[in-house]
Batch of 3 targets.
Target 1
Amino acid sequence: MTEFYPPRWTGFAAFLLTLFFSGTQLRPISPEILQNILQAAGMFGVIYLAVFGILGILLIQRAYLPGMKILAPILSIAVFAVFPPALLLIGFFYISGNLHRDLEERIRSLQKP
């Protein structure tokens, strides 16, 4: 699960697309085709960050609460349902920050005898 790591720039790009999505939701722009393109690209950014946010929550659970395996899926669904921006931020920090590396190091240190 920890072997795949996307390039850091994709986190910034997805975050920027998410901002475009939010911006076009709040203030529609006049050429409708441009608005549709920005919203579609923005939705891709939202989905991309959400997927890596869920992966980040799974790894956080594995690193800090290894005995409670049922907690990660429940926590992922709860965060997605109650406060979706938190999931997107976790995804952004997972991709563009050091969250992935820090969690991977912690998991490896737990596996060493």
Target 2
Amino acid sequence: MTHTAGTPSTETLLDRARLALKDEFLRAAVRFTADRLRTKKQATTDEFGA
């Protein structure tokens, strides 16, 4: 695949995505962050009664 400077190729992006999905540390960090955001959103919703 040909690409210009500064533009990552699709293959590189797909490779990085595949590696990231296999990275247990990264998966745990994303899960932690999503859970934390969900908890904060629920607390805010409960506080304001929306």
Target 3
Amino acid sequence: MQRFLISLVVMFCIVNVANCQLRKLMEEPDTVIVNAKVVTKPFVNKKGKVYLNMPELYLVVDSVSLFVKGCNSCVSKHDLMQYKDSVITLKIVLRRGLWDTNNPYEQSRIGKYVNVLKILSD
């Protein structure tokens, strides 16, 4: 009986580890090259208050606005601001997760965002 329980626990652990590794592979981000327009939008908090002095960067690709998350990007927001209202070619990583922080214990907006890896042409 004891061997059976130990075998059952070991089998459960192996299946669980394999499942986690498969899930991690499926969540790998997509790296793509896009032609995108760099735009800014004012920051809007949870209550709907608009902060005009805190612009956020977005890339508009095929009429879809994608939030640019500054941390984890190889290109700074300051460098992208030089191309404001221009269409440029970028290498980006599409992700889903926290926008405002990397700490899951802090309050943050959640959704799709991009990290800019490289500016290919302007």
